[in-house]
Amino acid sequence: MDLDDLRRLRAEALATMETAATAIEELETAETAADDEAMVAALAAFEEAETAFAASDRRVRRVESVEQAAAASASGGDNSSAAPGTVPAAASNPAENGLEIGFMMHALTNARGDRDRACAALEENGHSGISAALSGATDAAGGVTIPRAQSEQIIELLRPMVAVRALGARVMPMPAGQVRHAQLTGSATASYGPENGAAIESEQTFAPIDQAFKTLKALVPVGNALLRHSTAAVAALIRDDMLQVMRLREDLGFMRDAGAANTPFGLRFWTPVANLLTGVANDAAAVETAIRFLVSRVEDANVMMVSPGWIMRAGTKNFLASLREPVHGSYLFPSIQEDGELMGYPIKTTSQIPANLGVGANETEVYFADFNEVMIGDAMTVTIATSSEAAFVDQGGNTVSAFQNDLTLMRAISEHDLAPRHVEALSGLNGVNWTL
Predict the structure, then answer these.
(1) Angle at 423 (CA atoms; ends 347, 183), nearest 5 degrees
(2) Residue 312 included in any domain
(3) Residue 158 falls within a domain, yes or no?
(4) E strands present in 102-175
(5) Best CA proximity match to 180, nearest among 148, 210, 225
(6) What is the per-residue DSSP string for 381-403?
(7) pTM for this prediction
(8) Do the beta carbons of residue 410 and residue 223 sit within 8 Å?
(9) Domain, as residue range, for 393
(10) Are residues 21 and 147 located together in one domain of the fold?
């Protein structure tokens, strides 16, 4: 009997204990003498279940201790020079980060969502650690909620991929589904006065900012022929596809969504009107003035400038890098080519900023902010589900049957929201023909 079987027995014993305890509660509430025999029987049943649970728990702990001891004693050879009681250090392979999620999704897909069967398959294929992690997952209405440790790996992998996260936005766990914090709308003041005169009273004013979960769903179709192979390459492919679709949608939501239809309120709509420029021409003088304006608006608001940065399309970045001073012909922003920076601040690019905005369908957007002031509330969990019978609508608007095309659909759900601590830390513009 393996560890999973022992854990299931322990869970069954716990369920029996809970049933017996409920029966005792009901009898105590009745408080009638006629129930004495029933109370004796209920107490006996509880004691029996308690004994069974204790025995099962001891067996589970014993086997877990053996596995932990075996892992601790593992080494690369008999002549290890590591100190007693330590495990020799091993280099971490960044390419393997989050691979457990790929294996879990692969196993759950082949097991048609049955977690126990998925755990058994992982165990058979030599992935006992991943099997143990998946056995600790919880069932949810939308599938299986992956344990927090593995979910956080996915969220950490998204950090360098999503422009807003990459530039230093603060991530706050939102375990209760909502975070409320205050935005400073008016500062206290200081003033000079006579030596013994009374100080002039002043106070700060605040406005509440609420963050509540917005649900992001990522859908990844995978060919069933590929799923029949249980390899690290397949797990990495599943992980990477899921990260890619989540990245693209997060970028769009965190920057351009207007808070409608259960979407986040993006940076564009948090930015004060006074910090926005529209219809900026693409000649050198207009571009330089606009760029300096965005930085000045943030700096003049006494923002700390802890993690300032730019977000724009790659085409806009290359347009700015190629822009020359009209008189002398020198590059206007040489630091873009040299250091990937504009005005001394890093640039992140994303294809989720359109290049066909405005009346002439030839405008794009540029964002500047101190991203230390941008807060991302995150549930820090990922829920996954699979189906080989469902249909989906592809990016071309065509309805595709997973069953007919021998596909399996993998869906990942995460929850988060975005809000700045101070909107004055944000600025932006619409540039006309600011692209190559």
Answers:
(1) 135
(2) yes
(3) yes
(4) 138-140, 143-145, 170-173
(5) 210
(6) --EEEEESS-EEE-TTS-EEETT
(7) 0.68
(8) no
(9) 98-186+213-436
(10) no
